[in-house]
Amino acid sequence: MKKFIQIAFILLISFSVQAQDKKAKSLLDQVTAKVKSYNNIVIDFKYSLNNAKENINQDSKGNVTLKGNQYVLNFMGITKIYDGKKTYTIIPEDEEINISTVNEKDDSAITPSKMLTFFNSGYKYSMNILQNVRGRKIQYIKLIPTDPKDQRKEILLGIDVQTKHIYNLIETGKKGTKTTLTVNSFKTNQPLSKNQFTFVANKYPNYYINKLD
Asked: Which of left, alpha, beta for 84 (phi over 0: left; psi -120 to 50: alpha)?
């Protein structure tokens, strides 16, 4: 009888985990569908880096404009433009521009165009806590990288239950570093310039252009 109860308990836990995984998968699928439904997305965000052991606390702000796999990212004084073929990294402090080719089909290449759907492969996931953040219900999903070489211990992905937009992403490294990306503004289907994702060299007449490949 005792053994039967133990087996029943294990089965109940197993069914509960499977149910949570299905809920997590359903919510992630809704987020992906919502992202793909927009013509373009413009995000303002805050990025925080913390490591108590190393006494590191850094906060930065940035913004990114996304359309398909093209993007313009402004972060920490650097601008990155990806036109669908090449990435142009513009560094005003050094008056330098690095040009490189990116293989968007490479799953290991983390790019801004993948940041809103990165969770679709390479992770185990389960439902986590539900929080009320200034009147918004934020459902967290815990993501565990499946690659044992991955230096990230876990990721908590916060999703706005009503809009199905990503609210924040909390990443914990195996060495204790925690990074948090919080979306301050999420705008969609904005009027964009025809040259929004085009690198115009004559805007930077005195810059050194470094072609990496």
From this structure: left
